[in-house]
């Protein structure tokens, strides 16, 4: 029997995992199994999807070692290991920008300092966002207003600095979903009042929307610029001060897929996975 293995967190996300597993079981049937991403994979699995491998960013060395091991063993990973390795570090934004993708203005500070923040404020405005290059779920991400000091837990560490995008609060963040290269659905993620983080754990909420034509164009441009083909992808973007949409993140490892917002309930995702399984036989 065809075996689909979906990788899960090793710990720390217990409240979210059962609901996600139930959704995938309902969609994919009894051929799907789940195991922590840190555990050795089985050669009996036909295809592996790290869709629930949340928190890998806190175990960077283990994650890198896992990617190397999967690649060396020739495991069939839904999104290829080289693509995930590239996508692990958000400095991939510079690669996409070099290929003409409109991304959020970003600078990299190898060892974040007060001088780095001052330079970024001179370029981006008084309020800036700092985040680790390897992160997820807004972990380690801070909004620093004009008089806010640099938090000690990010001082001296490699960090990305970006402007605070005002449209996050006034419009929200668009997420577009693609399976097998085809568009599936779109949502608008809205933060709670006074916050800038759109994740559910911070009070954010999601709204089903029609994807603006410009959003689909940016998404396609980002997918074409990525160094490999993705079975699944979530493309996050926000409107800039000039009114144009700018890429925030291209999520190719463990994005929440929000299949309940898909008009087909996730059938396109299941069909894309089935097509990959057929080609792998």
Provide structural commentary:
30% of the residues lie in helices and 23% in strands. The protein has 281 residues and is of the alpha+beta class. It has three domains: 4-77; 92-102 and 167-264, D-amino Acid Aminotransferase, Chain A, domain 1 (2-Layer Sandwich); 107-163, ATP-grasp fold, A domain (Dna Ligase, domain 1). Strands 10-9-8-11-12 form a five-stranded antiparallel sheet. Strands 4-7-5-6 form a four-stranded antiparallel sheet, with helices on one face. Helix 2 (60-73) runs antiparallel to helix 3. 33% of the residues are buried.
Helix-strand layout with pairing:
Elements: E1 4-8, H1 17-28, E2 32-36, E3 47-49, H2 60-73, H3 81-88, H4 92-98, E4 107-109, H5 114-124, E5 128-131, E6 142-144, E7 159-163, H6 167-170, E8 173-179, E9 182-190, E10 205-209, H7 213-225, E11 232-239, E12 245-251, H8 267-280
Parallel strand pairs: 1-2, 1-3
Antiparallel strand pairs: 4-7, 5-6, 5-7, 8-9, 8-11, 9-10, 11-12
